[in-house]
Specification:
- This protein has helices spanning 2-18, 58-72, 81-85, 212-224, 226-232, 255-272, and strands at 20-29, 40-48, 52-57, 94-98, 103-110, 113-118, 126-134, 137-146, 149-156, 174-180, 185-195, 207-209.
- It is α+β, with helices and mostly antiparallel strands.
- The protein is globular and about 60 Å long.
Length: 280
């Protein structure tokens, strides 16, 4: 009986260890530099386990779920365009923090492929003695300069986590709120709950590991000439795949028309995201 009891405790410990906690943040953004009245708001998840955390858009998981169900049913290219358009996200990246190695890895799609880099800039926080209360949590103030913005974060030690949304980490608690000095970006904790484990992320295209500075260069190349950039990926291949975050349906359309639509779409995306969260 004693052996059975010990075995049960081990199994329970493994199950508990495998669980994760999901923190839901409301992300408010002003991504268009020419229109600061254009305010975007969406939810993002920070999933935390014993050894790592992941930050990503709620719509990302919903889109992945729709695409997975469509492919499994043999639909291939038969996406519901209205449904997919309704799940578009400003937060197209995902961020993973490895607690053991203290590494932060950023992933985002450029053209057909996923580019990933390890963050090489440490966050140097100045912790204040100022405290207040946000919701149910007693929080403390901290400030840092990162990515060309001045950030104020409010963290709590009421929860047993030392993490935060986006790349924010290194504080002795969980970030409940973070906002830049211009009020153009903010993250606000809304709720949290337990989940069985981390979700499966769809990955289309190659995964290309680069340095952060190289990622920025590739991103600029894509914006300046998306046609040439995409033709350079996978040894060319034109536009049969429907482009980045496309809905498929390339079919037998005229390559010149597809190229024109591609360039127009990328230019529109660049305009709508001309005020990124990281300015440098």
């Amino acid at each position: 009986m004693k052996k059975i009891g010990v075995f049960a405790m081990v199994v329970l410990a493994q199950i508990t260890f495998a669980q994760a906690n999901r923190f839901v943040y409301q992300v408010t953004m002003k991504p268009n530099a020419s229109d600061k009245n254009d305010i975007k708001t969406e939810n993002a998840y920070l999933d935390i386990s014993a050894d790592k955390s992941m930050f990503y858009s709620e719509n990302r998981i919903k889109r992945d779920s729709v695409m997975r169900a469509n492919f499994q049913s043999g639909g291939g290219r038969g996406f519901n365009r209205d449904q997919m358009e309704g799940l578009r996200s400003i937060i197209n990246y995902s961020i993973e923090k490895d607690k053991k190695d203290q590494k932060t890895t950023y992933k985002d799609r450029i053209g057909r492929d996923i580019y990933t880099y390890e963050e090489d800039r440490p966050l140097n926080w100045k912790i204040s003695s100022e405290t207040t209360k946000i919701g149910d949590y007693k929080v403390q103030k901290a400030e840092t300069d990162f990515g060309g913005r001045k950030w104020t974060a409010w963290f709590t030690t009421d929860l047993p986590y030392q993490d935060g949304p986006y790349k924010f980490s290194g504080l002795p608690g969980l970030v409940v709120k973070a906002e830049d000095s211009t009020g153009e970006y903010s993250f606000d904790l809304m709720k949290n709950y337990k989940i069985a484990g981390f979700p499966e992320m769809n990955t289309f295209g190659n995964v290309v590991k680069v340095k952060r500075t190289d990622y920025v260069k590739q991103q600029e190349k894509y914006k300046s000439d998306p046609s040439a950039f995409m033709n350079s990926q996978r040894g060319g291949g034109g536009f049969a795949g429907g482009g980045p975050r496309g809905n498929g349906g390339g079919g037998n359309q005229n390559p010149a028309d597809m190229r024109k639509r591609m360039e127009e779409r990328v230019k529109e995306e660049a305009k709508n995201n001309s005020n990124p969260i990281e300015l440098k």
